[in-house]
Amino acid sequence: MGCPQIPELDYAQLSKIIHEDAGERNIPINGAIDITSSCNLRCVHCYIRDTDCGQELSFKEICEIFDQIADAGCLWLCITGGEPLIRPDFRDIYSYAKRKGFLITLFTNGTLLTPSLADFLADEPPFVIDISLYGVTEGTYEKVTGVRGSYRRCMNGIELALERRLPLKLKTIIMTLNANEFHDMRRYAKNLGVPFRHDALINPRIDGSLEPTRYRLTPEEIVSLELEDPELADEISKVYIELYGIRGKREKLYNCGAGRGMFHITSDGKLNICTIASEPGYDLRTGNFNTGFYDVFPEVLKKMRTRVSECQSCAAANMCGQCPAWAELENGDPEAKIEFLCQTARLRVDAFVKRNNLIFK
Amino acid sequence: MKYYKRDESMVSRKIADELLLVPTKQNVANLHCIYTLNELGGRIWELIDGSTSLEEIVSTLTQEYKVEANQAEADIEDFLNQLEEIGAITLKITDDNEKGV
Asked: I need a labelling partner for B20 at 20 to 30 A (CA). Which of A55, A272, A331, B43 fits?
């Protein structure tokens, strides 16, 4: 009999061990669930609308799903929406998820965070509370969200999260309406001592509407904005230099890792390989998680390309957002190149990889 | 008699080959640690149910692992103390005729 032990693992160590182990065995270690498609904001770029989904899962149905995904090995669970805090039974759902031992990332716009809810979260903290920020002024923020008073409520939510020492992160979507405040948002987060990230790649709505894409910056505008901040440019360079030049055959349609070790569940209980893919749309109301993940997902993931594409051999493929689900929404063809993403990736290669090669390699 | 009970704020998860203890009350991100148990630790964790005494745990394990009770008891108590320190279990001492919970 050896000695029983409790090694304290650094989080990074643990994450590496679990991900390697789970990766080999295809354990669904990372999951996301929309507990609602409803939201109190009307953001212009949002990929989801209340009407996109059928009847919302009940608390009981969500608990049953949590039981199944916990048994299957899910550890990191993102609770999102819609706006998850809008559900009257949010606290019950969250508490149940905590009882299952998930490491919860909560995606929220922060506007519905109250002192009482902040206290509740502080008692059993999430792994991360990730608040979306759309500007540092009322005018800009509310141009994006379309709701008067939402800026003040978001700021209030951020303050509450900080006061309660919740593990807060901020993120933004950069678009035509708020690009002028991008650097101010970065400064704001830095002054608060909070991690901040941005995304400028706006995808169509999952109902196929291209409306959100109207608010995209051009690839040139995106890269020039990223280059304006030397610290950010350095951060991006380090990431892209690692990703650039990884070539593969990429003969399958999905090469991104979606559906392997990860999954997404819609607010009406459909199990998909990722957030924007509506495949396979396996109904967890009538079937169980393991069947969907282990029997149905492989049918989607084994799909092959039907024609040769320049994307297959592109050195920038791993730093490009090209994605079959996105291409289907944008071009009606999962194999078609998304010009916006391709141009952005090419400009980013020039700006962050080639220019800085000598510095970082 | 010594009885141990699992604390409700510590959730155990078996993922791949790892048995993890995930604290619900602490900020895992700031804590920078989640607890993992080896095989024997995991077996002891299974036996901690509030109504199995320390003596019974030792007896079960000495049979399963074919070791001397004296040696096993010291190791097991040491491990239970560690679990107690991290808030994973609580100890209850009762009269000999009284069950733990």
From this structure: A272
What is the domain range of residue A39? Answer: 23-217+254-303
Interchain CB distance below 8 Å, B20 and A73: no
CATH number for A289: 3.20.20.70
Residues A93 and A132 in one domain: yes
Residue with tokens 């999905």: A254
A145 with A39, same domain: the answer is: yes
Q: Measured between alpha carbons, how far is A156 from A154 in angstroms, rounded to an integer?
A: 5
Judge if A270 and A354 occupy the same domain: no
Nearest residue on chain A to B66, alpha-carbon basis: A1
Number of domains in chain A: 2
Instruction: Give me the residue from B15, B32, B75 closest to A4, CB to CB.
Output: B75
**Chain B CB contacts of A167 below 8 Å:** 27, 29-30
Please give the sequence-ordered ranges of beta strands (E in DSSP) within chain A, or none if there are none. 8-10, 30-34, 76-80, 103-108, 128-132, 168-173, 196-199, 262-265, 270-272, 280-283
Instruction: Report chain A residues whose CB lies below 8 A from the CB of B18.
Output: 17-18, 21
| Pair A266, A324 in one domain | no
Q: Does pLDDT of A110 surpass 80?
A: yes
Contact B25 A124 (CB under 8 A): yes
A2 lies in some domain: no
| CA nearest to A101 within chain B | B11
Least confident of B20-29, B77-86, B92-101: B92-101
Q: Is residue A7 part of a domain?
A: no
Query: Whole-model pTM?
Result: 0.92
Q: What is the pLDDT of residue A24?
A: 84
Among the partner-chain residues B13, B21, B41, the one whose CB lies closest to the CB of A5 is B41
In whole angstroms, what is the distance from residue A231 CA to residue A73 CA? Answer: 38
